[in-house]
Design a protein that fits this description.
The protein is built from 11 helices and 6 strands. With about 325 residues, it is an alpha/beta fold. It starts with 20 loop residues before the first strand and ends in a 10-residue tail after the last helix.
Length: about 325
């Protein structure tokens, strides 16, 4: 599939950001620690030589062991310590986050939350994790069988879990960990909290969607010990697919992009059975592809996708890289 957004053709000649730019990808866990950290891919996106496509170079795969590290990241306090590249720390970054950054409009209205994202994110952040979880479980319990969860429009298009899910995967708890912290900092979150003058930009990214474009639905993470060899092969196939994104006919619909990493990065991504490091790179790739498009390739409220309202876009946001029309 090579679906293109008809609002924002993938033209590297008129990118959302002037290159070079720092690109980050963040794989999120709701309860980070030494055994299951947050993982951050630190990359640079630079112009290609001559007519070659832009180049995304992976500089560093970093582990973050506490949610407080998100405040340091979103507040720009990590910028000076990022490895390599020609992007000065004050230039900011474009960050792709593997977490639901928003909740469904229907849920927001049902619970009487503020209809601005920063307002309801802060409200949720004022709840304890257990209190937020129990609130969503109460809403789900009151709904009819087969319709326990509400979905955002972008989740349905991407085949993603509802941000009301509290287990398998705990998307709601990742929202609770990330969105209030993000809302507390001067970060441009397109559609949800526009701050066009801000140098730091955060986008919601879904690595599973990109992985399906590259290797289909073959699992590439987790599983029993007997599954590990086959899933490592799928991680290798994913890296092979990323290495071929410079083709104009790549199957993702993203702008052509040359993705580079070194042998140590490849070994770490292949040997990580949960694929957290690889998912962080997939988030960075989606953020880079978005940075090459005007408006980050996102739908615009004045011309929302078919079946989606401007109000939904403002409350629910959109997943970066996901075509508004399929």
């Amino acid at each position: 599939m090579n679906t293109r957004d008809h609002h924002t053709p993938p033209s590297a000649s008129s990118p959302a950001r002037i290159l070079p730019v720092r690109i980050l990808g963040l794989d999120v866990t709701a309860t980070p620690g030494p055994r299951k950290p947050l993982t951050l891919a630190v990359c640079d996106l630079a112009p290609g030589e001559g007519n070659a496509p832009p180049v995304l170079t992976l500089r560093e795969l970093r582990e973050l062991h506490a949610l407080d590290d998100l405040d340091r990241l979103f507040g720009g306090r990590m910028d000076a310590g990022f490895a390599g590249g020609d992007v000065p720390p004050e230039a900011g970054w474009v960050l792709g986050i593997d977490a639901a950054l928003a909740q469904p409009l229907e849920l927001v209205e049902q619970l009487g939350w503020p209809c601005d994202w920063a307002g309801y994110a802060a409200l949720c952040g004022g709840m304890s994790r257990a209190g937020f979880r129990d609130l969503l479980r109460g809403v789900s319990a009151a709904r009819p069988a087969g319709h326990k969860y509400l979905y955002r429009a972008c989740c349905r298009r991407a085949g993603a879990a509802s941000p009301m899910n509290t287990v398998r995967p705990p998307v709601a708890l990742m929202f609770h960990a990330v969105a209030p912290r993000l809302a507390a900092h001067a970060v441009h979150v397109p559609l949800l909290r526009p701050l066009p003058g801000a140098g730091r930009v955060a986008l919601e990214t879904y690595p599973g969607w990109l992985a399906r474009r590259l290797i289909g639905r073959a699992p590439y993470k987790g599983g029993e010990a007997t599954d590990r060899a086959a899933r490592r092969e799928m991680r290798a196939a994913l890296l092979h697919g990323l290495a071929e994104l410079d083709r104009p006919t790549n199957p993702t619909g993203l702008p052509p992009l040359l993705v580079r990493w070194n042998a140590d990065h490849a070994a770490r991504m292949l040997d990580d059975p949960e694929a957290d490091l690889l998912d962080a790179l997939l988030c960075a790739v989606l953020a880079a592809g978005s940075a090459l498009r005007p408006g980050y390739g996102l739908p615009v409220p004045s011309a929302p996708p078919c079946g989606v309202t401007a109000a939904q876009l403002g409350v629910e946001g959109w997943i970066a890289g996901l075509p508004p029309e399929e």
